[in-house]
């Protein structure tokens, strides 16, 4: 059995994932990735802001917001690098840009005063709120016509998929 077949198994006692399912997921993920690469959701957020925001800064703001909502975890440049799947030196540069542009600020860690953490400024919080509104409005249009059960099941399965994806990425 090759690596792909091994990873296709959920557990030893379960059958491998059906090839048609793998093909359908792969095709859907390629389409999602292409759509994300075009930054079709980021551009409307940027237009809705009083202050101009760079796409990379918006990515940093999203990562800091995500980290802030996870309990007990300091949001550092390393955290941003992990969330954006980029090397730490690149993350350091785009975080520095986000700090210079006023969306993020550096603060001392409450756990270790020698370590620098990141938090959103009021402008960063405005960007996060605009991003959430824009994305949720977009997804509302996409899910329009789906019944309530379909919407809830899609949210449940997508969340489960992302958690599994995170586990494979980190494991």
Give structural attributes.
171 residues, 65% helix, 6% strand, globular, two-stranded antiparallel ribbon, disordered N terminus, mainly alpha
Could you explain the architecture of this structure?
With 171 residues, the chain is mostly helical. Helix content is 65%, strand content 6%. The protein has eight helices and two strands; from the N terminus they run H-H-H-H-H-H-E-E-H-H. Strands 1-2 form a two-stranded antiparallel ribbon. The longest helix has 23 residues, at 148-170. The radius of gyration is 19 Å and the shape is globular. Mean pLDDT is 83; it is low at 1-10.
Brief account:
By secondary structure, the protein is mainly alpha-helical. It contains 8 helices and 2 strands, in the order H-H-H-H-H-H-E-E-H-H.
Set out the fold topology.
Elements: H1 3-8, H2 19-37, H3 42-47, H4 55-69, H5 77-84, H6 88-100, E1 104-108, E2 116-120, H7 122-143, H8 148-170
Antiparallel strand pairs: 1-2
Helix pairs in contact: 4-5, 4-6, 4-7, 5-6
